[in-house]
Amino acid sequence: MTAREILKRVRDRFSDKVLKVFEKSPRRVYVDFDPKDVPEVVRFLFRELGGRLATATGIDTRNNIEILYHFSFDNSGTIVSLRTLVDRGSPEIESITPIIKGAEWIEREIHELLGVNFVNHPNLKRLLLFENWPEGKYPLRRE
Amino acid sequence: MAKTVIPIGPYHPLQEEPEFFKLLVEGEKVVDLEIEIGYNHRGIEKIAESKSYDQVVFLVERVCGICSTSHPIACVNALEDLGDINVPERALYIRSIVGELERLHSHLLWLGLAGHFIGYNTVWMWAWKYREPILDIFEKITGNRQHYAMMKVGGVRRDIEADDIPAIGKMVDGLLPVLDMFRGAVMDDPVIHARLKGIGVLTKEDIFEYGALGPTARASGVAIDVRKDDPYGAYPLVDWQVITQAEGDVFAKAVVRILEMYESIRIIKGCLDRLKVVGGEIAAKVKEIPPGEGIGRHEAPRGEVFHYVRSDGSNRPVRYKIRAPSYMNVPTNQKSVVGGTISDATITLAAVDPCYCCTERVAVVDTKTGNKRLTGQYLIRLSQEKTFKIKRNLVV
Predict the structure, then answer these.
(1) Is B292 helix (H, G, I), strand (E, B) or coil?
(2) Does B46 touch chain A (CB under 8 A)?
(3) Chain B residue at shortest CA distance from A28
(4) Which positions ≥6 away from B379 have C-beta within 8 Å?
(5) pTM of the model
(6) Is A97 near chain B, with CB under 8 Å?
(7) A77 touches chain B (CB under 8 A)
(8) Residue A68: its chain B contacts at CB < 8 A?
(9) What DSSP designation does A53 have?
(10) Which CATH number fits domain B44-327: 3.30.450.20, 3.40.190.10, 1.10.645.10, 3.40.718.10?
(11) pLDDT digit string (tens) for B133-172?
(12) Distance from first CA to last CA of chain A, Å, rounded?
């Protein structure tokens, strides 16, 4: 499925919920959604369109915490990055690990490095940081 | 029956990726597995934010010592995606030659370790012996046996001289009979069949759920390979094919890696032929990286390496995200190891090729008495003894 076809399927399904679409190049596209719509869109990309979760990226933009879920569609070499902005004051979003097992580690990593709370994550403990690392200090935050 | 906890890892002077596997066993059977990582977290993503783009290429080469050129390739792909930079054709061939030489030495390294774990120490010593000429070639064309520093945004840093082409060709030609020997040793050996078939099985569904990559995925019949799927470098310009196996067990993973080495040699020879006729620059002139975001990938020996970079137009990234393949492959052990026996745990954990030297640090602790301690050598011996037993039975 090419980027165009994927975008069409996403638009058909979530027409009013798509906030923004950015086609960087023929095989790299970015689609913005509200955090509350993320689980539904992830389920659609993963279960119905067969996208493989490559990884997720968390970024502190100083205004928000931005999370990008990168889905790879290997039959066309396309990467669809699902972008969402969560509130920087109390960053919280529904976990996608119940939908995709392979998201467990990356959500734990974003949780400890950026302080995002992934609601309903089955095992939201530290992944990389030392156990004595102080609570509430997030290495990738820009303070 | 009393449950016993077997902690494997996390430290060993040889390993580059310390990991901690806590096996919960009942008698011989593994009933649960906990994985802990983070022992070697160096904050490279954070460091990247304070480096210029030229330096970042060198920095990411330090992510891994075995697949050291994989991260720079993904990095330059990401930055070239960001800046819409075109790379001269000659540089593409050089990139792919370095990438495939790396796959060859990495797969041979794995084959040796896998042989050691199941008691085939001759395979171990031979595989590592035949890996040496590859490292010698690296030294000849890049100046280093590891950490080649060949990649730069827009091309490569060093040309492969016409004088060096015959030496590379001769080396890979010399490797072919060696691969034939290993292929025979693995695929025709009844002991290895009995030892590796049907253990550590991952289904297609497991691969999809965990997002597993590389030979781990391809051995379960999932034909994903960034080199074909999202073509870059010289991969679309030369002739080769993606290797898959259907079974998903440890045997299939070994077969995939062995057959892939033949394809690597095909790619290298194809690129060498093209280098003889394609001249020109080896790097495009890149003035600056514009604001924006880019994603670059490379099929490393263990699977897809994924890099995401965001730029604000300055000379250093605002955010640099790296995802190595073992990050996705290691959690699959929760499927492949659990339900098997302890004597299969070593080779199953090693089957995803997680740079797994941790086994020598294994200690077995009885949770009830707390004083029974067994060493890592014990687990390897257990695995080797199982092979010898199969051997004896087959001979009789």
Answers:
(1) strand
(2) yes
(3) B295
(4) B6, B8, B342, B345, B346, B359, B362, B364
(5) 0.91
(6) no
(7) yes
(8) 308
(9) E
(10) 1.10.645.10
(11) 999 999 999 999 999 999 999 999 999 999 999 999 999 9
(12) 41
